[in-house]
Amino acid sequence: MNLYIKNNTFWFELENLARLFFPNEKINVYKEFSEVTPPYIYTELSDRITVKVVIGDFCDEACVPAESENSANELQTVRLLYKILVRFSGVDQAWGLLTGVRPIKLLRKLTAERGAEAAQAGFLNDYFVSPEKLRLSVMTEQNERRIIGLSKPESFSLYVGIPFCPSRCSYCSFVMSSVERAKKLVEPYVDLLCEELKLTAQLASDLGLRLETVYFGGGTPTTLNAEQLDRVLGTVNSCFDMSTCREFTVEAGRPDTIDSERLSALKENKVGRISINPQTLNNTILQKIGRKHTAEQFLEAFALARRHGFKNINTDLIAGLPSEPFESFRRSLDTILSLSAECVTVHTLCMKRAANLTTEGVVPDRNDADIARKMLAYAEKTLTGDGYIPYYLYRQTRMVGNLENVGWSKRGFESLYNVYVMDETHTILACGSGGVTKLKDQSTDYLKRIFNFKYPYEYIGRFNELLERKAEIPRFYGQ
Known about the structure:
CATH topology of the largest domain: pyruvate-formate lyase- activating enzyme
Largest sheet: 9 strands, mixed
CATH superfamily of the largest domain: tm_1862 like domain
Strand content: 15-25%
Strand order of the largest sheet: 14-15-13-12-11-10-9-6-16
C-alpha cells in the first residue's frame, strides 16, 4: 500500500491508521513525489483537506475545509481516511481510529479538559470508539484513578529485569536468552545485578525518593535457582527503604520454573504477588507456541503456590492464539476462575516483527480477528459477572483485530505497578538487562529515559559504562 503525504505532517498517524486495515502489508510512505501509483492513499492539506483512496476497482474521495489549528486538521484528516477505509473494508474497528498504547490516559486527559460527559462523547463521535470499548475504558479509568492517587511527587517504582527463559515462545520478541544456552552468563549476571541494585538504592536514598512498588519481570525471573533468587531479592530488601513499599511482585511466569525451593525464597523475601502464566490450558496449543509445560503443570504450580501461602496470584491468558478455537479459550478462562485467581490478565495476540510466528509467515485474517473479539467479549462478561474489575489497559501495534490487553482483578488485588508504568505516573528506576529507567518531572510531565543494555552479554561486558549512565539520575533531579 502506498501512502502519499502532501503539505501535512501527519504521516505517522496516517501510516498507523492504514496499518489497522492492512496489517499484513508494507505501508510505503511518500512525502515527495510527482505521481501516484495504485493501490494508494493520498492526503493533501491546503485551504481544504483532501483524502483519496484507490484500491483495485474501489475509488473514494473526501474533501472538507481546513481549519486554523493544525491539531484539528490532523484529526479531521485521520477521520476522513478512517471513514473511507471502513467503506472499503466493511470493518468497523473496535477502537475506531485510536492507534496509541494508552487510550485510558487519553480518556483521563479529555475528562480533565472537557468533563466526563464530553470526553466520552468525544471517544464515540471524534475517535469512533465502539460503545463496548468506551464502556470498558470508563470502568478502567475509574479504577486506575484511585491507584494513581496513592502516588506522591517523590514516589518511584523499581523494575528488575531477569532476561532468561526456559525457551522462546513463538509470539515473543523480548530480548531474552534460553537459560540452557546462556547458563554461563547467569551467575555473573546475578552478581552484577546485585551491584546495580545497591548503587540504585543509594541514589534513591540520596534523592529522598519514596519506593511504592517493586516488580521483577523478564524473561522469567524464576529461571534463577532458589539461591540466586534469594540473593537478588535479599539485595532489594536490604538496600532499599521498604517501609513505604505497597507491593512486591515477581513474575514466576512459566509453571515449569516453579518449585518449593523457589517459592520459599520468594516468600521469605516478602514477595506478596506473583504471576503464573499458562497463556492457554490447551496442551496442543501450548506445544505449538513453544511452551515447555502442560496445563496440568500449571494447575500443580498454582496449587503449590497456594500451599506456600501466596494470596495474590495473577494468571495470563492470550486471546487469538493461532488455531485456538473460541471454546478452547472459554474452557481455559473458566478453569482459571474455578481456581479463584486474584488477577487475570487477558492479552490479545500481538504479531511482533521479530517473533517466530511472524518470521514463519503466520498471517491472521478477518476470521481470526472475529474469534479474538468474541473471546474478549466473553472474558469481559464472565469476569465482571464474577466480581472482577478492569484496572489497567494497554494496546500494541499489530494486535489481532486491533484489540487490547486488560488486567482484571478482584477488588483490592490490583497491581499498582502495572497502573503506574502504563499511566507514566512517577519515576521508574530500572535495573538489569533490557531495563529502561523513566525519570518523571512532576511539574511538566516530561519523561527522560535511560536505557540499560539489552543483551545479558552486553550488560556483563559493559557494566561500568552502564553505571556511568546512572549518573544522569541525580543530574535530572538537580543534584
